[in-house]
Every structure is written in C-alpha cells, then in structure tokens.
C-alpha cells in the first residue's frame, strides 16, 4: 500500500485531484489515476494533475520548457493522458503560488501542448493558451463546418467545426430555439468523421454579441461542468461563423459551473477565470 498526498481544486467546477510530485514521485499508472478520479471509490475529479519540477518531466517536455520551472502532468478521469487543460492550468498556478513554488504576477508552466504563460488577474488567472488552429481542411471550415455531430436530445445530426488548441475540440452550434438543457450528455455524442484520437465536444448557444452558453462532453471524462480549452474553442468557432468581426474579440462563455472569459488576439487565444483549492489530504493507493 502506498500513501500519497493530494490537493483537491476546481476552476468553474471542472475539478481536479492534484498530486504534488515535488521530487518527481509519485509516478501514477493509468489505473491509479482512474482510482484517484473515481467519485465513489477514490477522491473524485474530472482529472488528475501531477505537479512535477521540469527537471523530472519527460524529455520532450524538458526540450520545450524554456523558462518554465513546473510541468502540469494532466490525465483525464479514465486515466488517459491529455495534452492540455485550460481550467487545470489556473488551479495548478494557484497551487504553485499558495505553496511559494512560484512568485510574482506572471510565470510560465510547461504542458504537453507547450509552455503557457500565466498571469494573476482580478478574480483568478489568465492563461495564454497559444496559437489556435482549424483542425481540418480550410475549404470545409470556409463553409462553416467540417463534420457532423449526433447527440441524444437533438433530432438530426448538427454541423460542427473542429478546433485544435493543443487538444482536440469539435464545436456544434445549436439553433437559437434549441434548449441547451435538453441535451443528454450522459451519452457520448457521435462525431462523423470520427477523429482518430477522440475529441472534446462543445454545444454552443448564442446569447448576445460576445456572449455564448456552452455544455461540453469531454474526451476521457463525460459531461463536465466546464472546460477551459472547450470555452476557447466555442468562442473561436462562434466568432468564425460570424465572419471574424474585429469588434468581437472578447467573449463571455457561460458554463454550468460558472463563467469564463476568452480573448482572441489574432492567432492566439487567452482564457481567464477563477481557481479554487478546497481540500488537502492523504489517500492510500490500492495495490
Ligand atoms: N477540462 C479541460 C480539458 C481536459 C482535457 C480533455 N478532456 C482532453 O482529453 O483533451 C480544460 O479545461 O481545458
């Protein structure tokens, strides 16, 4: 039996079990990760994040880490590895500051999707998510969609646009009359064509200029109360569908767990929102 320390935190109720691995240990298997994330048998979270000094990170992360001193080792609830987690970066940054592992208003953290700049702002943190990309052929994106998504609760397959933020997203625009709460996201939405490595699927309803509401089905998790990279993808897709208006670069994204801010700066996109630490403890990993 191994006893490890954990910290529980969330960003707009996208919740994480943080595991400090300040000397590079503990390592976690996929099974141990899924145990920690299990809401009944374990601690419970949408994901598990190891806090790892860059010198103990994998070689490919060390190679790109630059000035970053800490590596956010993110795993989904089912134990699979995720390249990036927007809400997770803010909770990670709060843990680093609270524990004097970082200081100052700005610092970098390393992720599998590159180095992300964190900035302390009113009410939380802003993270520069970096360069966004249309994930599929530009011709399809010009038409506004590159795939279709069938969700339980929607009569017909709905057109969708794929956005790459270091992790994959498929954004579905719902017609204005569609009630977002009627979707059944207990079931995985069917994406056609299906992306090889899976995708996070965001369902979006326009509220007003620069303002959308979103629900998300996350790869490796299921429905979550919020997804930071998903909110960025949803805002970018909505802005894209609107013809990329120059006066609509700031977005509010309402998610079941709260509200996130998105800023589009040319090729880059920034996410802002709160970060909370709610508990610390120890847990015995099963053998
Ligand atoms: N909730 C996260 C995204 C987590 C990773 C995702 N499930 C994936 O597999 O890509 C966020 O806030 O961005």
From TrEMBL:
Name of the featured protein: Diaminopimelate epimerase
InterPro entries hit by this protein: DAP_epimerase_AS (IPR018510), DAP_epimerase_DapF (IPR001653)
Source species: Flexivirga alba
Catalysis performed (reactions): (2S,6S)-2,6-diaminopimelate = meso-2,6-diaminopimelate
GO molecular function ontology, one term from the record: diaminopimelate epimerase activity
Keyword Zinc-finger: no
Protein family according to the UniProt entry: Belongs to the diaminopimelate epimerase family.
KW Amino-acid biosynthesis (keyword) present: yes
Coiled-coil blocks: none
Record-marked site positions (Could be important to modulate the pK values of the two catalytic cysteine residues): 169, 218
Transmembrane segments annotated in the record for this chain: none
Compartment list: Cytoplasm
A Pfam short name: DAP_epimerase
Job description of the protein: Catalyzes the stereoinversion of LL-2,6-diaminopimelate (L,L-DAP) to meso-diaminopimelate (meso-DAP), a precursor of L-lysine and an essential component of the bacterial peptidoglycan.
Primary location group: cytoplasm
Ligand binding (substrate): 14, 76, 86-87, 167, 200, 218-219, 228-229
């Amino acid at each position: 039996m191994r006893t490890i320390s954990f910290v529980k935190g969330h960003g707009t109720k996208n919740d994480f079990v943080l595991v400090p691995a300040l000397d590079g240990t503990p390592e976690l298997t996929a099974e141990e990760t899924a145990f920690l994330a299990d809401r009944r048998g374990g601690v419970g979270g949408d994901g598990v994040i190891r806090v790892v000094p860059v010198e103990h990170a994998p070689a490919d992360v060390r190679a790109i880490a630059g000035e970053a001193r800490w590596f956010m080792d993110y795993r989904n609830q089912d134990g699979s590895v995720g390249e990036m987690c927007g809400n997770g970066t803010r909770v990670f940054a709060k843990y680093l500051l609270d524990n004097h592992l970082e200081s100052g208003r700005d610092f970098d953290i390393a992720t599998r999707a590159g180095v992300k700049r964190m900035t302390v702002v009113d009410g939380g943190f802003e993270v520069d998510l970096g360069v966004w990309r249309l994930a599929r052929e530009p011709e399809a994106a010009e038409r506004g969609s590159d795939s279709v998504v069938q969700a339980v609760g929607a009569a017909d397959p709905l057109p969708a646009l794929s956005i790459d933020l270091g992790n994959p997203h498929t954004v579905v625009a719902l017609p204005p009359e569609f009630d977002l709460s009627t979707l059944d996201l207990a079931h995985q939405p069917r994406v056609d064509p299906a992306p090889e490595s899976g995708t996070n699927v965001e369902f979006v309803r326009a509220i007003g200029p620069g303002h959308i509401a979103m629900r998300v089905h996350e790869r490796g998790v299921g429905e979550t109360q919020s997804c930071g990279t998903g909110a960025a993808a949803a805002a970018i897709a909505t802005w894209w569908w609107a013809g990329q208006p120059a006066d609509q670069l700031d977005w509010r994204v309402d998610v079941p767990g709260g509200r996130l801010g998105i800023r589009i700066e040319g090729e880059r996109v920034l996410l802002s929102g709160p970060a909370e630490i709610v508990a610390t403890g120890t847990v015995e990993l099963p053998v």
